[in-house]
Amino acid sequence: MEIQMSIRLKWEQFDDDFVVIVLSAIVVAGQLVALGGLIPYQLKGLYLPGGLLSLAGLLLLVKYRRGAKGGRNILKLTIVGCLVYAVFLTLQSSLVISVYYGNGRFRFLVGTMLTEQGIYWMRQFPQGISPSELIYQIGYVYIPVIYGNSYLVVATTYSIIYLMMMFVAAPTFYGFSMVVRVTASQLLEKSKPRLAGVRFIY
């Protein structure tokens, strides 16, 4: 009897781990594919270390997720993950611009303030020109010259946030699923009719 119970517990544990591994791996792989086309052209070198950090986060989740301490750590990583995703989306939407070369679309990271040289180049076009058009005219290699130190700060911040986001991808997904399961279970318990003390007459 004890042997059967032990086998059953081990199988349930294996089955649970298998589901977590598969779902988290799908999330990580999907994120890598989706973000592969969003990374600015200058920072394409982040793709490989981002993939390795995603794998490290997945292995960390599988190893340390059990127990009360593991659950608390996963929830902390989930909160951090939400903040990191919010910062990444802000950077991606406000400081990554698209430039079309021929039939191709390229994304470039820019800074927050123009340098004197950047302002000078902008003024060479009396009709007015957008940052993406300026980069198209003079070349993306001059982006650090156009934006100066603000570009270096943005590039460093973007790189750190991207790598952090890849590392917490799997724990964040599992944390969300854990919160959803607990919330759904609590709601289900509250929705059950209270039948204690009720006498049915047929």
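^ that was protein a. below is b, sequence first then the tokens
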Amino acid sequence: MKHYVWPGADPATATLRFEDFSHGLDQSAADSLLPNGAALNTNHCEINSRSLRNSTGIAKAHTNQLPAPVESLMCHYEGTTPKIMAVCSNGTLWSLDNNTASIVWSDISGKPVCHLNYQKNSRDVLIFGSPQDGFLTYDAGLISRYPNCPDPRALALHKERLWALPADDPMAVVCSRDMAPTDWTQTLNTGALIRILTWDGTRCTGLKAVFDDIIVAKERSLWRIWGSDPENFQLSPIYSGHGAISNRSMAVCEGGMAFLSTEGVYFYDGVRSRPLNSHRIDKLIKNVMPQYAERAVGFYHNSRYYLSIPSGAARNNMLLIYDFTIGAWTTRQDLHINDWLLVGNKLYCAMEDGFVALYGESNTILGFPMVCTWNPPSRGLDTLPAAKELKRLSVTARGEGTVQFTLYMDRQTPVIVNVRLTDVWQTQHFKISGRGAYMHMRMKTAPGTKFEIAGMAVELALHPD
């Protein structure tokens, strides 16, 4: 892999260029095998085609801080007006409207719920539930519990039937009568129960309507159910070898479905599943402990798959972002997101600290300024046929604030360069010094800095050994 432009304009120089950041995060290979613009670690950065810029912020959607972590977000439409509803871990269901928070119900477990919206007589009915809470509806301001319906671990709507993974049968998927979401009678003319027996000790873990089928995930396999009614439902395995370990990680995307498996993040395209460059984030995925993996929650929006995971923790604390347009991953650390909800063009997120927030709004995280970092791979300058000396750093960027570059040569004292940005593209040059065989570079912004970097270049002087 070519890392250098060598020789430079002067035969006694070489230039190390960082001009394409589209590879994104990659922790899968030795530094020498990665391109210059890749990142070994990154935080609050995103890729704009080939350039690097700060991520957007997260703003409070409502000024009210709820008294406990927000576990799930739902939306109920009263006419055309959406009402955001939040399930908190202290066992309360809240309604948020125009910066006013009020308790709707206090007889809920506080565990994450699965949910969907159903149109009944031109009226929106919110259907939700969990193994702890049973099957519930919110209709015209009233909450009803249906003991004859399954206690759902997952819900999906397909061809006017509700589908569910029942809590009392880990191998089964069931569906309701068409046009009757609370009638789960199981006959050839009404609903159905389909048991998926694989004899490998795995259970059903997820459920989604994808394309024209119902996709059921087990821990090590995917299954497809198709047909028009219980008389002709068919079940077949999907060639994959990979299943989903979290129902909430399963997100319908343009052209398929993304999900978290024990082997990484995969994408089902209607025929088979394939990894989403998952080897690049393998270390982060393996840091998710199995007993907390079902907390992982994914969402697809604007060509990106957002996956919040519990990295080495019991609660979600890291956001992984896959950009389908360039096939690259980035990360945002110490973001505690428990759920996602899209209402119109606004993406809401449920925060661990009790706030309901808007993703992609403002330049802060709930009022706190961001610090962005990007750490490219080290470069072994011993590939050039002479002793090397740092001479000049050039940075092409624009923005507002300061970006700090720290360069190390072997074990020498680091060289620190602070680049003050302007709102127009500008290339700035800085004299630097240091001598050795290996160069390490780190980029970090001052709090609140807005930036976009088109490229960096490090000029080296070559000296006889």
